[in-house]
Write a structure and sequence with these properties.
Blueprint (H helix, E strand, L loop, with lengths): L2 H4 L2 H22 L11 E7 L5 E4 L5 E9 L2 E8 L3 H9 L5 E8 L6 E5 L1
Antiparallel strand pairs: 1-3, 1-5, 2-3, 3-4, 5-6
């Protein structure tokens, strides 16, 4: 019997993913950053935190502002493109932060659309 047949590949994959996530979280914490938020399809309940946003350039060369949000008690960085209609809505909400918001995600890739429900 080959040892590959006894090896639990699913468990190994899950362990590797968990270890990778821990390394990334440690590196981000050392830089004063958080994991980036991945919005699920449909409604996402978030709390917009009152922390000064930072700027960055996306992988596609678009200028973004990075806001701090919480989801299920975890803090994330949320990058919003400054040319997006969503951006000014988020900026206007910062005066009321921390504030609960719902962000609706529809579509994938370049067809992704986000809308905000206050």
């Amino acid at each position: 019997m080959n040892s590959n047949e006894d090896f639990d590949w699913q468990e190994w994959q899950m362990t590797q993913e968990a270890d990778n996530t821990k390394r990334l979280e440690k590196r981000l914490a050392e830089q004063g950053r958080s994991m980036y938020l991945r919005l699920e399809q449909g409604e996402n309940n978030l709390t917009l935190l009152k922390e000064i946003p930072t700027s960055k350039v996306s992988n596609w060369g678009k200028e973004q502002m990075v806001f701090k949000v919480q989801r299920n008690g975890e803090t994330y960085d949320w990058a919003v493109t400054i040319t997006s209609p969503l951006y000014m809505k988020v900026v206007n909400l910062m005066t009321h932060a921390p504030v609960n918001i719902i962000v609706v995600r529809v579509g994938t890739g370049k067809q992704t659309r986000l809308s905000l429900i206050e």
